[in-house]
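Possible regression after last week's pipeline update?

I re-ran a chain I had predicted before the update to compare outputs. Posting the input and the new output here so someone can diff against the archived version. Not blocking, just want to make sure nothing changed silently.
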Amino acid sequence: MAHYENLPIYKRTVELTVYIEQVVRGFSKYHKYTIGSDLRNLSRSLAVMVIKANSMRDKIPILTELRDKSEEMKLMIMIGKEVKAFNSFKQFQHAAGLTVEISKQSEGWLKSQREKGTESPKAQALASEPKITVRPSRP
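New output (post-update):
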């Protein structure tokens, strides 16, 4: 099993998940069971996707999904602000800040994985073959 506990993106997703759980407790009854439920589910899914991405050989599909979910999380937080679900601007600001960090980290991770995969398989095979030099024979 791959070690994911020390990944900065994992730490941020767990921090966001715990924070969302705490903040949603203070939402009004209506918001707690509508947007609050969506925020809680999305934050947990982000953490799970980080774990899955870390253990997969081909990380690009799950990292693309992680990036998309983090954008969805940003949208839900913005909607929460607009409908006044958050008790204070500070709560919104902290949740949004963590989500932006996660989004940036997931985009960076995705970019690094795409750069690793830019070499064609043929070029990779040629690079791994031993080099043989042939010298012309002397007359």
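Follow-up from reviewer: compared with the archived run. The chain is about 75% helix and 0% strand. Marking as no regression found.
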